[in-house]
Design goal:
about 35% helix; 3-stranded mixed beta sheet; alpha+beta
């Protein structure tokens, strides 16, 4: 499997052992739990990697009593027991045990994207799955393309045309209709246009607007103690709407942006690595796990393929040697830094 680092057999062994300790320490039987606690102490002292895994396990197990009281722990324990029992079939038992262990033990800050399919996502008018880029013609003749894991609501009337971007990124080609303004709305503000082509990307704490043709008026949402502001931007300009208002960013090459959408690519320009990984995560089944704080200082300027996110991850590894990417399974990837590495950049 691509990008699997040396020593993965030992990692699988530790994952299996840790999974077995979870079964013992969270068992329904009191005597089994007592025996497991005694052996667990010795296991922790045998290897620093055991102690590191144990620290995460102990945080998990602190809440197991609550799970046991409502019956949640028992089905999870059965699932893990079944996975461990599958010793054949080319190690599938170990792989499944590793998956279950990682799902339980990884810090919440590293598990990004768990809310990507929230109730709000499922109740929207239009939405896309991982790696899907559907394009639709709206009732007014405008075209709307959705990137992966994107969701929108539509509200068209005799006087207005409104698209609410709930999550993800859209490319809009607006049909001219002077009597009905076309507006894209996010939690951070609004983008108003008549006849134009632009992209809107909703991020966790801001909205990014990229102009390709004509002009739009970008307005920030109401903020406590801060009056809304409006900024008119034209082709080749980018603006960000955040909690601190509007900011005009560096100009972009519109041809490159168009090509990126056409070829299903992601163009990053001096972007924090966690934001790049989050985009790759939206475009693939499964999850990319990482610690945002650990990687936040790394800036990426690159054009990455989204049709095959394994290739995109490999490109990051090839150009940024401090980065470590571990393909735990085709659906579970861990990205972090080699020990002691905390700074750097990647460009292509």
């Amino acid at each position: 499997m691509r990008m699997r680092q040396p020593g993965h057999q030992q990692e699988d062994l530790i994952a299996r052992q840790a999974a077995e300790w979870i079964l013992g320490l969270s068992a329904d039987d009191v005597n089994r739990r007592a025996e497991a606690r005694a052996g667990f102490s010795a296991w922790k002292e045998a290897d620093p990697r055991h102690a590191e895994a144990a620290a995460r396990m102990e945080r998990l197990l602190a809440g197991m009593e609550q799970l046991r009281s409502n019956g949640t722990a028992r089905p999870a324990s059965r699932a893990l027991q079944t996975a461990l029992a599958r010793k054949g079939r080319k190690g599938m038992g170990v792989k499944l045990a590793s998956i279950l262990l990682l799902l339980c033990l990884l810090a919440p800050t590293a598990w990004l994207g768990t809310q990507e399919r929230s109730l709000a996502f499922w109740t929207t008018d239009m939405r896309s799955g991982e790696g899907e880029w559907p394009e639709s013609t709206l009732a007014d003749g405008s075209t709307l393309m959705l990137s992966g894991l994107t969701a929108v609501n539509l509200a068209f009337s005799a006087t207005t045309r409104k698209v609410e971007l709930v999550q993800g990124e859209i490319l809009v080609d607006v049909a001219r209709d002077a009597s009905r303004p076309f507006v894209v709305v996010t939690a951070h503000g609004t983008i108003r246009a008549l006849g134009t082509r632009f992209a809107v990307r909703r991020e966790a704490d801001s909205t990014l607007v990229t102009m390709l043709e004509s002009q739009v008026a970008v307005s920030s949402a109401d903020q406590p103690g801060q009056a809304p502001t409006t900024l008119v931007i034209g082709a080749g300009q980018q603006a960000r709407i955040g909690s601190d208002g509007l900011s005009l960013l560096q100009p972009v090459d519109t041809a490159n942006v168009e090509q990126a959408w056409r070829n299903r690519q992601f163009a990053a320009q001096d972007m924090p690595l966690p934001d790049v990984l989050r985009e790759l995560d939206r475009q693939r089944p499964g999850r990319i796990l990482f610690d945002r704080d650990e990687l936040a200082r790394i800036k990426v300027s690159a054009v990455l393929p989204l049709k095959d996110t394994d290739d995109a991850l490999q490109l990051l590894v090839n150009n940024f040697p401090e980065l470590r990417v571990r393909m735990l399974t085709p659906y579970l990837v861990r990205v972090d830094l080699q020990t002691g590495e905390r700074n750097g950049s990647i460009r292509n």
